[in-house]
């Protein structure tokens, strides 16, 4: 055996969901080498050392997020190879063990599932949803509440033309070449994506505001759903929709920008700040039933990985 493992050792693959506040991290991906910066993956793999796997545990992340971007729920798969005679960890024990060994308070493992050995957290995903939080009515020289800082984009404008933003968002729905909304460095050779949902709605009021702040501040939520996104696509779409809400760009111009396929045009250089963006969910066919309490469905055939083409990534 090339791996040198004792006969009878068992390898088990797990899908884990985890969340993090991205403020302290250089993105979700591991930072290799001697750099002082660290990604969320570095802490997860350090925590996995406590599992005492016969082979070092590596996390394969579903959706890469930039520095400062948060995740309500990201996902990854990992393999744990216990030594001969030891049964695989139950998902509950794995979740508890990872959380016990995590050394950063801004990361939490939510849950874990056993999945087939050829399941892939990135390529098997059928849907990814991003949430972007905006706050209006923020005076330029009056900082946002410390409890909301780095969790939304604070805008000095008192209001947004939400109807115009919704009209502009409608132009983005469907299958298009989104070249105009991608940043340089996108790893995908194809810029065609299918945007299934783009919504602009009033967000819930923050419970962390003083009375005088509650009277002037309003929160807004933008949500985008697709199987995958181009590099910084969500932040660029958000920036242009905010420009529409402020009246500096029209919905018709958004349609023209999309059709131009030009990422360097007059309005396309805008990128919304990272700290307002949250990866809200990553979904897999069949796991909705499993989350409702049916443990057998993780082994169903429709959880097998889909064709691993260039459109299978997930970058917001």
TrEMBL record:
GN (gene name): PUSL1
Catalytic activity: uridine(38/39/40) in tRNA = pseudouridine(38/39/40) in tRNA; a uridine in tRNA = a pseudouridine in tRNA
UniProt EC number: 5.4.99.12
Cross-referenced Pfam families: PseudoU_synth_1
Native species: Phyllostomus discolor (pale spear-nosed bat)
UniProt name for this protein: tRNA pseudouridine synthase
Biological process per Gene Ontology, one example term: tRNA pseudouridine synthesis
Keyword tRNA processing appears in the UniProt entry: yes
Sequence ranges assigned to domain Pseudouridine synthase I TruA alpha/beta in this UniProt record: 19-124, 168-284
PANTHER family, alphabetized: PSEUDOURIDYLATE SYNTHASE, TRNA PSEUDOURIDINE SYNTHASE-LIKE 1
Xref: InterPro entries: PsdUridine_synth_cat_dom_sf (IPR020103), PsdUridine_synth_TruA (IPR001406), PsdUridine_synth_TruA_a/b_dom (IPR020097), PsdUridine_synth_TruA_C (IPR020095), TruA/RsuA/RluB/E/F_N (IPR020094)
Similarity-based family: Belongs to the tRNA pseudouridine synthase TruA family.
GO molecular function terms listed in the Swiss-Prot or TrEMBL record: RNA binding; tRNA pseudouridine(38-40) synthase activity
Stored Gene3D superfamilies: Pseudouridine synthase I, catalytic domain, C-terminal subdomain (3.30.70.660), Pseudouridine synthase I, catalytic domain, N-terminal subdomain (3.30.70.580)
